[in-house]
Design brief:
Helices cover 60% and strands 0% of the residues. It is mostly helical. Helix 1 packs antiparallel against helix 2.
Length: 50
């Protein structure tokens, strides 16, 4: 669960600015940790189906 912070931690500790892509990477990592992509969730079967 530390992955989004790990993307930016070394830059923050060093007092350096974040790379331009760091915010996108942190957002993608958090989304991946919080749940499946929307298209995957819609393909699930209802409980007891099949």
């Amino acid at each position: 669960m530390d992955l989004p912070l790990a993307v930016v931690r070394r830059h923050l500790r060093a007092g350096r600015p974040l790379p331009a892509h760091a915010e996108d990477l942190a957002e993608e990592a958090a989304a991946a940790l919080l749940g499946p992509p929307a298209d995957h969730a819609s393909s699930r079967s209802a409980p007891g189906a099949g």
